[in-house]
Inverse folding.
């Protein structure tokens, strides 16, 4: 009977929302976005100062699962509720990438220009690469090629590795399309 009581006590113990959020992060890294969202909903049902982080991770989960319009709505809601004394740069950056996925490049460019202050080198490299990618995707071949080439020339190590790869792929696609036109 003691084991049974111990199990019931453990099940009835309050859950720490930070633990739920941490487990949600692990699930997201494994690609389990539905499980991620379930844990985040549970975390949001618990009062505390973790709501912004949980909502941000919900938006990321929708974005990474390909539900771009839903993610954009969540980023918009999150920015509307963001406290003025905290930096919203990560949310702004994610919102910009989401806008670009929806082919709303002008809005995405405008969103990136809202980022405040000096950027860490890796963040600035991502921004420079994204601007080049978006120029190419809008058909501005020369400007896009030049921006990407310059950003890649100034990149180092593993900083912004995914964005560098994406820029190289977009650059290659644009060059192949240009060669087809010859």
């Amino acid at each position: 009977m003691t084991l049974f009581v111990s199990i019931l006590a453990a099940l009835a113990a309050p859950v720490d929302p930070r633990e739920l959020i941490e487990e949600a992060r692990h699930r997201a890294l494994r690609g389990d976005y539905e499980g991620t969202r379930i844990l985040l909903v549970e975390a949001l049902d618990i009062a505390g100062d973790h709501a912004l982080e949980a909502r941000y991770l919900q938006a990321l989960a929708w974005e990474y699962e390909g539900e771009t319009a839903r993610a954009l709505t969540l980023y918009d809601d999150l920015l509307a509720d963001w406290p003025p004394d905290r930096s919203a740069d990560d949310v702004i950056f994610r919102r910009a990438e989401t806008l670009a996925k929806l082919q709303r490049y002008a809005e995405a460019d405008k969103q990136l220009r809202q980022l405040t202050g000096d950027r860490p080198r890796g963040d600035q490299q991502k921004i420079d690469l994204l601007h080049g990618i978006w120029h190419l995707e809008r058909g501005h071949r020369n400007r896009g090629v030049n921006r990407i080439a310059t950003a890649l020339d100034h990149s180092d190590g593993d900083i912004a590795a995914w964005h560098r790869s994406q820029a190289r792929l977009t650059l290659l696609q644009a060059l192949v399309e240009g060669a087809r036109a010859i």
The chain has a mean pLDDT of 88. The two ends are 82 Å apart (CA to CA).
